[in-house]
């Protein structure tokens, strides 16, 4: 079943077998303070530190778990000064090139071998970025792997910057989500993320890796009369969806966040399409406040194992009750600023009559017990271990955004100390990525022996980009949970 191109994800925690990642490219080092917010970064980044001290460790962990031989056979040489980090650079010959940990830049370089696609892609990107027509001819002359790098970083080999960077491309989660054997593509809310989406559409629709899945790629579009509407109407009816708001929690169940980035109209379309095409039976909408701090639902909760979740305390039962304090709802007025709404739509049941959940924990517990058949008590770990004011501080630096390599083994950020304490209280060991990698290297431990562990990545630079390991991954294949 695991052929080279197999695509299937039916949970958030089944053993991770294949994913798309993008390593920080040189464009990230070109973000300037006045543009940082427009480009959705909280600050400017020291790219060397981000790569060598942080992201490289992430890659090594992924490779050890997903493609052991690929890394273990070379582990003693890849970091030597004379290797010049070529192992990590997608345009170099000694790049690791794995069919499990996959870099879109490599897929893009492959696509550009077709002259027709090369022309079309150059035309689309230049039109989108509004560059001079004459630049197209110049780009046509570039070697394909160089052009792939340029299309992403925006920087020509002679150092001219021709496009803005797309620094958020490291957050591959947001470009699309694998829903069983379908891929739901994004339609980004933010202009800064549009080029990523153009590039990925070409890849999904043209690369041999996705060939058997062309009819399973789902695009969500604006209503047909959208361009006729005035601006106010457009604002109301806009369709935008980003992958961080879509979570494939069980074979029959998809969560869709309505947030700063994903609109109600997009969510409605997803419900209809999922039911019409019989892809999942339940779609649950989780509406969160449209705020930069929360951006996507995966910044407020992710799954650790079948019966364990890490969540943002202000959205929890206790948090909401506390915030409400002595406020009497029947008097009207505004509710808590963190109020969330959870509505579940089941195939065959009237859309006017969704099932409602009062609290996030109720929904997550229902997923664990009903959908994932967990027989153990559902456990919750809270951001900052619910200690004031660490819950909010650590949510901001992605304490709730972990990537599961398998049930119970997740990657998180080292700066979220209090949340780590919360993990430990629930029986999860906490280990630094570098220490774990040393053990793998010395063969004291094999990735298959790692159980119930939170792996901590250094995160001083990465967290300024405002995404965690969950955001930095687009799973294509996970082993089914049963
Ligand atoms: N799935 C996620 N939470 N992605 C985080 C994306 C962060 C990125 N800087 C943005 O604002 O778009």
UniProtKB/TrEMBL annotation:
User: InterPro entries from the xrefs?
Assistant: Arg_deiminase
- This enzyme's EC code(s): 3.5.3.6
- Print the keywords alphabetically: Hydrolase
Which reaction(s) are listed as its catalytic activity? L-arginine + H2O = L-citrulline + NH4(+)
State which pathway it belongs to. Amino-acid degradation; L-arginine degradation via ADI pathway; carbamoyl phosphate from L-arginine: step 1/2
User: GO molecular function: any one?
Assistant: arginine deiminase activity
Is Hydrolase among the key words of this record? yes
State any GO BP term from the record: L-arginine deiminase pathway
Sorted alphabetically, which Pfam families does this protein's record hold?
ADI
* SUPFAM superfamilies in alphabetical order: Pentein
Is Transit peptide one of the keywords? no
| Entry's family note | Belongs to the arginine deiminase family.
Spell out the protein name for this chain.
Answer: arginine deiminase
